[in-house]
Request: fold
Amino acid sequence: MRKLVCAAAIFWLAVAGQAFAYSDKQMAVMSHLGQAIAGTKICSKLEISEAEVAVMITAYKVDLGDPTVAAVIRSKVDETISAWAGKGEDLACTGALILYGPSGSNVPGLLRIKD
Reply:
């Protein structure tokens, strides 16, 4: 357990240290992407809009190939999935759509209902 805590602390120090190289807007893009990706994992009825992702990452110069960006997004996915654990798919779908659906309050159109 002690080794796991140490490994997690080292990982977060590395991510946090590198994360300071990103602007607040870039960090927000990473957070929104992570939450939206989590939305597709907790709600099987949703998919992410690749066009909206492309607009966001281009506008704010977020490089998805950057390992730090990937780690930040992955951690937000994990955090969001954990937060929704046990709440039921219908509630999760509703929550994700409120934030990222066509009229979403965070990033409208980032998520959509699958055809």
Notes: Strands lie at 46-48, 111-113.
